[in-house]
Amino acid sequence: MLALTSGVAPLLQSQPDPTGGGLLAVVGTVLLGWLFYAVTLHLAATFFVGDVPTQPAAAAGVVPAVVSLLLGRYGLGEQTLVSPGVDFVVALVAILVADALAINYAYDLPWKATAALTALHFAFASVLIVALNNIFGFV
To answer: What does the UniProt keyword field contain (predicted)?
Structure first.
């Protein structure tokens, strides 16, 4: 049993998880990632293809959100494959491949156009996350 000294509870975790790590945190993270990827994919597709409906972007946006969450939770961490830098590259390639497969399925594009739209989606997402980080300081 832990004893309380001077009315202050001892710190039980060295680095407490602000989200609690529960199911609600996982669902919220997936939904937020899905929204982010869907919006940036729709912007990239509108720029690349032209006037497109939002449904394909919403359908394809869930794939990179889930893959990035799974890689962040189970693929990367303290037990690295080679080094943190190499693990980052492996995760980035895996997310881009999953994104390309989802884009190809959702938009039914040829593979060259899929590769171009995937690269454009990566560029739009990178620019938006840097801008949001500069505004709100997420990272």
So the answer is: Membrane, Transmembrane, Transmembrane helix
Structural domain includes residue 21 = no
- Report if residue 86 sits inside a domain: yes
Angle between helices 55-70 and 23-48 (to 10 degrees): 130
What total of structural domains would you count in the chain? 1
Give the contacts of 86 (CB within 8 A, at least 6 positions apart).
Answer: 80
First and final C-alpha spacing in the chain: 37
Q: Which domain holds residue 31?
A: 27-136
pLDDT tens figures, 84-130 = 677 788 888 999 999 999 999 999 999 999 999 999 999 999 999 99
Tokens of 104: 């190809």
Backbone angles phi, psi at 52, to 5 degrees: -125, 150
